[in-house]
UniProtKB/TrEMBL annotation:
The record marks C149 as: Transition state stabilizer. It catalyses: 5-(methylsulfanyl)-alpha-D-ribose 1-phosphate = 5-(methylsulfanyl)-D-ribulose 1-phosphate; 5-deoxy-alpha-D-ribose 1-phosphate = 5-deoxy-D-ribulose 1-phosphate. Pathway: Amino-acid biosynthesis; L-methionine biosynthesis via salvage pathway; L-methionine from S-methyl-5-thio-alpha-D-ribose 1-phosphate: step 1/6. Substrate binds at R53, G54, A55, R87, Q188, N239, K240. Belongs to the EIF-2B alpha/beta/delta subunits family. MtnA subfamily. This is Methylthioribose-1-phosphate isomerase. Pfam families: IF-2B (PF01008). The keyword Protein transport does not apply. One of its GO terms (biological process) is L-methionine salvage from methylthioadenosine. HAMAP family: Salvage_MtnA. InterPro entries: IF-2B-related (IPR000649), IF-M1Pi (IPR005251), IF_2B-like_C (IPR042529), Initiation_fac_2B_a/b/d (IPR011559), M1Pi_N (IPR027363), NagB/RpiA_transferase-like (IPR037171). Gene3D superfamilies: translation initiation factor eif-2b, domain 1, Translation initiation factor eif-2b, domain 2. The active site is at D229 (proton donor).
Length: 337
């Protein structure tokens, strides 16, 4: 298979000394528009508006937001509190801010904070490459797999989590075909994952979210590979809305279910998925497509953008620390003491 799966995938979050350059993910795939954030407030808005999105990527962006606050003399505790409130579900955001706050509290200056944010970004990229190898090793040669949402370079420091496993699996000749769910309503799969896979020359087909069970019934895929926004102490996993029903269908059809996420997505302080806050976003995101309203005026909508997959439906959790098969709290606490 002649793919051009590049090892140097796009870097959607770029630090330029006094500004954070972000690829506006609301405009993809039609336009590649970059914009600069020069204050922590700019970064908060970018996270809230999903200009930058993806659990690791929003943590990394928030870390740079703290650096911008330090460099521009903002009130650091206030800046960090505002960044922290930008989105509730992805624990990477809180993890990154806690790490930056520890440096602030220890008296770190702007240069030291810049080094800390760079370390957070570099560590994420290294974790993704390692998880790619660990996850790909679980997949038999010649496999067809399915993924949901976007977990690639756009959602991380680069390479990706679930999409990193897919990149590594393709490189290793273990994955022959990828099916990407469109991921209504924000269409991360259709707009972002397909953009990444096509650019890499990876054989990918888009499917409607509603086609996933039919795809699994046909025996076309052997793995569903997804990312995560928060993994609780018992292995319950919050991820993009629609993940839970994929896990149910996968178990029904004997398809394996893999969650891929760095340790910055693990939240051992949260006992179970019942305790994870699920972000509700504006109904307009559901009542329109690409800005064009598709539902009668006056209609209402309910727009939770994450759901929780119970650990018992997960066959493997892949982190950079290793793989947990059939995850439970005992194994989680062993890997994340
Ligand atoms: C690499 S994990 C990305 C994770 O974040 C996505 O959510 P959103 O696009 O709303 O930030 C989705 O849950 C992905 O699995």
């Amino acid at each position: 298979m002649n793919t051009t799966a590049s090892h140097d995938t796009i870097r959607a979050v770029q630090w330029h000394g006094d500004r954070l350059r972000l690829l506006d993910q609301r405009r993809l795939p039609a336009e590649e528009i970059w914009f600069d954030s020069t204050t922590s407030g700019d970064v908060t808005q970018a996270i809230r508006d999903l200009a930058v999105r993806g659990a690791p990527a929003i943590g990394i962006a928030a870390a740079w937001g703290v650096v911008l606050a330090a460099k521009t003399g903002e009130d650091l505790p206030a800046a960090m509190a505002t960044l922290r409130a930008a989105r509730p579900t992805a624990v990477n955001l809180m993890w990154a801010l806690d790490r930056m706050k520890a440096r602030v509290d220890s008296g770190a200056d702007a240069a030291a904070l810049e080094a800390e944010a760079q370390a957070i970004q570099d560590e994420d990229l290294a974790a993704n490459r390692h998880m790619g190898e660990l996850g790909a090793a679980l997949i038999a040669p010649g496999s067809h797999v399915m993924t949901h949402c976007n977990t690639g370079s756009l959602a991380t420091a680069g390479y990706g989590t679930a999409l990193g496993v897919i990149r590594a699996g393709v490189e290793a000749g273990r994955i022959e075909q990828v099916f990407a769910g469109e991921t209504r309503p924000w269409q991360q799969g259709a707009r972002l994952t397909m953009w990444e896979l096509v650019r890499d020359g990876i054989p990918a087909r888009l499917i409607a979210d509603s086609a996933a069970s039919h795809l699994m019934k046909d025996g076309k895929v052997t793995w569903v590979i997804v990312g995560a926004d928060r993994i609780a102490a018992n292995g319950d996993t919050a991820n993009k809305i629609g993940t839970y029903q994929l896990a149910i269908a996968a178990r029904h059809h004997g398809v394996k279910f893999m969650v891929v996420a760095p340790s910055t997505t693990v939240d051992m302080a949260t006992a179970s998925g019942d305790d994870i806050e699920i972000e509700l976003r504006d109904a307009t995101e559901l009542l329109s497509v690409s800005g064009t309203r598709t539902v009668i005026e006056g209609a209402e909508a309910w727009n939770p953008v994450f759901d929780v997959t119970p650990a018992e439906l997960i066959d493997a959790i892949v982190t950079e620390r290793g793989v947990i098969l059939k995850p439970d709290e005992v194994q989680m606490r062993s890997m994340f003491p």
